[in-house]
């Protein structure tokens, strides 16, 4: 929905973040992908590197204001849809 709305808003060059404003850890993301593909990831846990951040989230305020964008698909459902698409 966000991509379609952005395509309809061709008033110049704009960048929109079409994520979700809820923080998700990398471990949670990896676990969700593992659950969908049915295989464990090969993990190599290393110390944090310069520039790494403990937490991050998408600032979707601009997309919300200009495109009326609101995320509607939870992370796990989105991953499930992506894996299904990938397997086709």
CATH architecture: Alpha-Beta Complex
CATH superfamily: UDP-galactose 4-epimerase, domain 1
Record field, number of beta strands: 0
The CATH topology label is UDP-galactose 4-epimerase, domain 1
Query: Could you give the order of the helices and strands?
Result: HHHH
Q: Average pLDDT across residues?
A: 90
Low-confidence stretches: none
Q: Sheet bearing the most strands, described?
A: none
Separation of termini? 22 Å
Provide the structure class: mainly alpha
Radius of gyration: 16 Å
Proportion of beta-strand residues: under 5%
Please give the count of helices. Answer: 4
The first-level CATH class is given as Alpha Beta
Number of domain modules: 1
Morphology: globular
Approximate helicity band: 40-55%
Protein model, in words:
The structure is a single chain. By secondary structure, the chain is mostly helical. The protein has a single domain (2-87), classed as UDP-galactose 4-epimerase, domain 1. It has 4 helices and no strands. The chain has helices spanning 2-7, 26-37, 61-67, 75-87. α2 (26-37) crosses α4. It starts with a helix and ends with a helix. The mean pLDDT is 90.
């Amino acid at each position: 929905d966000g991509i379609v709305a952005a395509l309809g808003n061709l008033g110049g060059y704009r960048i929109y973040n079409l994520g979700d404003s809820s923080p998700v850890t990398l471990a949670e993301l990896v676990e969700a992908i593992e659950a969908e593909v049915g295989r464990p990831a090969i993990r190599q846990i290393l110390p944090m590197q310069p520039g790494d951040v403990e937490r991050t989230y998408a600032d979707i305020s601009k997309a919300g204001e200009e495109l009326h964008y609101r995320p509607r698909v939870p992370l796990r459902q989105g991953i499930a849809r992506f894996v299904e698409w990938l397997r086709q």
